[in-house]
């Protein structure tokens, strides 16, 4: 146990429990040392059968628990700022689920706190950067053979949304992934956003604006459109097509088992992000553990998390006003490269 990175997991819900399973049984080099969740039963259930894990209701006491050397934050977005600042205060490396901090003022406080430390401590959980298909698309675009990317057409569908989901969360929780992926794939900041509202689906909960059609502009004139539909009822579908000057490339078409029977063929469609992005989460957490054990920090940065929050906030304003909303980022501290790779 001594050589393994001791991780405190904050939040033992859907994502936290899956990360606990992953740290314990999938990735190498780490172990769960502590877990914190105000819901003690949930925390205990998530670590049932694991040895040497202390269970806490208070995240700060989990960070101070024996054997804790790093932190994985999987509590709801509004709790992330306190968790990140508490980890920074103890010099603990962090992997923080998206959205880093949903409100941009809080996100900027996290940027400033890490910049004051003068070294990176946090990796943000934009796991699509670790997905094999997204990585192939990124290499193709970087290679330049198709010419300059002009547009990205993105689809982001969930079978259903959790009960607490709001119209703003379609943008600041769901589309936060496309915001990060677009910045990363194109190597450009997003500069303006417009949100259109098709008639809401009868399958969406009362009052939820679902689906939405989000259009981003970038600093060098590309356009990124996103259909986000979180109560589509039929599958977890994430697609992205890059249209370039000399060709196009599309990822996310289902490549899965095709079952033929009774004169027809049926292709399975993932129902959940834990299935569609299983490999990406595994690679993301393994990369974090490896880098942390080597004293490095890699992957999406706190600046990427901040930029995503500012763009998403502009998107929520655009949804509310119906107008085109521009994005204003604070000056970027020297600690951060433009859009981290
Ligand atoms: N990367 C992805 O694809 C992905 C997928 C799902 C969720 N997420 C993110 O993971 C985070 C958690 O989402 P979820 O779906 O697991 O939510 P969830 O509601 O299932 O679980 C959250 C848990 O955190 C606990 N909690 C609340 N406040 C806390 C605090 N201050 N400290 C510690 N625990 C606290 C809750 O009791 C709950 O058990 C969110 O930021 C979400 O956006 C990311
Ligand atoms: O928190 C989840 C998660 O980030 C998923 O990857 C996304 O598809 C959902 O829309 C979002 O609600």
UniProtKB/TrEMBL annotation:
Domain GFO/IDH/MocA-like oxidoreductase per the UniProt entry, residue ranges: 134-249
The EC number(s) this enzyme carries: 1.1.1.18
Pfam families reported for this sequence: GFO_IDH_MocA, GFO_IDH_MocA_C3
SUPFAM superfamilies: Glyceraldehyde-3-phosphate dehydrogenase-like, C-terminal domain, NAD(P)-binding Rossmann-fold domains
A GO BP annotation: inositol catabolic process
InterPro entries: Gfo-Idh-MocA_inositol_DH, Gfo/Idh/MocA-like_OxRdtase_N, GFO_IDH_MocA-like_dom, MI/DCI_dehydrogenase, NAD(P)-bd_dom_sf
Quaternary state and interactors: Homotetramer.
Reactions this protein catalyses: myo-inositol + NAD(+) = scyllo-inosose + NADH + H(+)
Family designation: Belongs to the Gfo/Idh/MocA family.
Residues annotated as domain Gfo/Idh/MocA-like oxidoreductase N-terminal: 6-121
Protein name: Inositol 2-dehydrogenase
PANTHER family per the UniProt record, alphabetical: INOSITOL 2-DEHYDROGENASE, PTHR43593
Organism: Streptomyces brasiliensis
Any GO MF annotation of the entry: nucleotide binding
The encoding gene: iolG
This protein's record includes keyword Oxidoreductase: yes
Keyword annotations of the record: NAD, Oxidoreductase
First-level EC class: oxidoreductase
């Amino acid at each position: 146990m001594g050589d393994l990175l001791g991780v405190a997991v904050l939040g033992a819900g859907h994502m936290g429990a899956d990360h606990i399973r992953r740290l314990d049984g999938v990735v190498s080099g780490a172990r769960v040392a502590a877990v914190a969740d105000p819901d003690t039963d949930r925390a205990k259930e998530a670590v049932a059968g694991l040895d040497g894990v202390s269970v806490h209701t208070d995240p700060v006491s989990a960070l101070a628990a024996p054997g804790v050397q790093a932190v994985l934050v999987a509590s709801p977005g509004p709790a992330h700022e306190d968790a990140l600042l508490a980890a920074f205060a103890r010099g603990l490396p962090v992997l923080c689920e998206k959205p880093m901090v949903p409100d941009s003022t809080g996100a900027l406080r996290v940027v400033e706190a890490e910049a004051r430390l003068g070294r990176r401590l946090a990796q943000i959980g934009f796991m699509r950067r670790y997905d094999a298909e997204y990585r192939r698309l990124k290499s193709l675009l970087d290679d330049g053979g198709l010419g300059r990317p002009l547009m990205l057409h993105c689809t982001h569908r969930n079978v259903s949304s959790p009960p607490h989901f709001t119209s703003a969360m379609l943008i600041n929780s769901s589309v936060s992934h496309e915001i990060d992926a677009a910045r990363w794939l194109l190597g450009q900041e997003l500069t303006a956003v417009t949100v259109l509202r098709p008639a809401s689906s009868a399958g969406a909960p009362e009052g939820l604006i679902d689906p939405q059609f989000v259009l981003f502009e970038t600093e060098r004139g590309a356009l990124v459109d996103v259909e986000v539909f979180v109560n589509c009822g039929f599958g977890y579908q994430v697609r992205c097509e890059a249209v370039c000057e000399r060709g196009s490339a599309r990822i996310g078409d289902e490549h899965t088992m095709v079952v033929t029977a009774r004169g027809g063929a049926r292709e399975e469609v993932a129902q959940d992000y834990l299935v569609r992005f299983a490999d990406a989460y595994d690679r993301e957490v393994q990369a974090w553990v490896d880098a942390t054990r080597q004293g490095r920090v890699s992957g999406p940065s706190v600046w990427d998390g901040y930029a995503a929050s500012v763009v998403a906030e502009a998107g929520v304003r655009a949804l509310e006003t119906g107008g085109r909303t521009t994005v204003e980022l604070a000056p970027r501290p020297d600690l951060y490269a433009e859009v981290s790779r």
